[in-house]
Amino acid sequence: MKTINGGVCAAKGFKASGIYCGIKMPSIDNQNPDKPHKNDICMLKSDMVCTTAAVYTQNKVKGAPITVTKANLEKSGNKAIAVIANSKNANTCNADGIEKAEKMCELTANELNIPKEQVVVASTGVIGLVLPIEPVEKAVPILAEKLDYNGNKEAASAIMTTDTVMKEYAVEFEIGGRICHLGGMAKGSGMIHPNMATTLNFITTDCAISYALLQKALSDVVQVTYNCLSVDGDTSTNDMVCLMANGMAENKIIDCPGEEYETFKAALYEVMANLTRMLAKDGEGATKLVMCEVNGAKDEATAVTCAKSVICSPLVKTAMFGADANCGRILGAIGYADIEIDPLKIDVSYVSSKGSIDVCKGGYVIEFSEEKAKEILLDDEVTIKVNLNAGKYGITAYGCDLTYDYVKINGDYRS
User: Which of 10, 27, 250, 268 could form a disulfide with 6 if both were Cys (CB 3.0 to 4.6 A apart)?
Assistant: First the structure.
């Protein structure tokens, strides 16, 4: 397996485009009137019908695009050809939300001459603002005309809201003697919490695989990637991960578990894990990526719950911002997690490119150099290592520090 360029266009047969159409987001457009407009709508299309799997937010308040996408995939037998997605406006909690989301699908389907139930629709941005459909109507023909096998960056920029960087990743791997590709793009900076699915994510592959195994791979991998990610503890209303497979690599279809399925799943993990890292590092107002690596758990569920508890703790997150080595906050977060542990077996250390330092052994804080610890924690990527010394299972959760700027960004989000 090797890393390649191309994002959602890395896989054979996928084209993308992105443009600015004029959807307004007050905090972006009002504060930067002279700044060049960023893309705010994108399209993704496959040359062949795709087997399509998806996972969605568990928030009980769901955006209209999620309702429409789920209905479309049910009608089409989990088949899709195209995606239409916009930023700046979430099309959520609006009386006409379903109507607008269905209209976006209809416009796309008519322009591409495909069934409207084979269109995935997604929106992200401010919740509760009515989505103006007129800019979308003007944009769809232009997006269709601009579709390009190298259009991944135009599309990736179009789904950004408060993101400061585009998030793309792709890999190449071999199945049955055929070279396959899998790549994706993601957006997300705030309103991110591990409760499926945390952000908008679109992943494409030219590997041929059955729907049952495609959905299983996505559902399994999301548990140890996006569901181990938290920026601020808020689960969005519009989150989804959409995985499309068009089979154009012409490998023999993967329709049963085995070595080829595990290879595909490893490629999916590679892409989703790296996108997860990017999402965590670009958290709103964040100055550093913070990871919690838990080892020695009695089972995977214990490891996941423990790592999430640490990474979600506001006190841990603020300590990381201040480069404060107070591991009592970490022990406290482990202690209130819903898991069975022996507190007197816990070891904790901090690791970064500046070195590593042990701060807790057997559940007790030990003497350590505060100066060395601060140097380690001032790095822009920090790992909190926790060993429960109770088994063989481990997991890494991803997050970021909590800063003054997070409050400022969200205090000004609509103003």
Answer: 10
pLDDT single digits (tens) 244-266: 999 999 999 999 999 999 999 99
Residue 52, SS3 per DSSP: strand
For residue 54, pLDDT beyond 90: yes
Measured CA to CA, the distance from residue 347 to residue 297 in angstroms comes to: 12
Residues annotated catalytic, as ranges: 198
Structure pTM?
0.85
Q: Residue 193 has what DSSP assignment?
A: -
Bridge-based pairing of strands 355-361 and 347-352 is antiparallel
Give residue 395's identity as a one-letter amino acid code. I
Q: Does residue 132 surpass a pLDDT of 80?
A: yes
Instruction: Give the list of residues 6+ apart from residue 79 with CB closer than 8 angstroms, or none.
Output: 49, 50, 51, 52, 73, 118
Whose structure tokens read 């503890």? 233
Determine the Cα–Cα distance for residues 328 and 47; give it in Å rounded to an integer: 55
Q: How far apart are CA 315 and CA 392, in angstroms?
A: 28
> Residue 14 and residue 35: Cα distance in Å, rounded?
31
